[in-house]
Design a protein that fits this description.
The protein is of the alpha+beta class and 70 residues long. It has one helix at residues 58-64, and strands at 3-7, 9-12, 28-30, 42-46.
Length: 70
Amino acid sequence: PWFSSYNHMDYAGPVSIGQVVDSATHIGDIGNSGNSFGAHLHLQLQQQLAWSNTTYDPIAFLTSMGATGN
């Protein structure tokens, strides 16, 4: 399974760890929290519970899962 982390958010929506969401679920608002230099969403993907040094391109992953749009 894939796990995601959304960072630098100003507001984390009413979702909980492990909750399955779809494209209509409001998970939060972009922000500038932490060590950041401008409002943005940092999306990090992994395939295991423990963080590893392996990174995944979120655009390629989302596209491979059928996501479309900007």
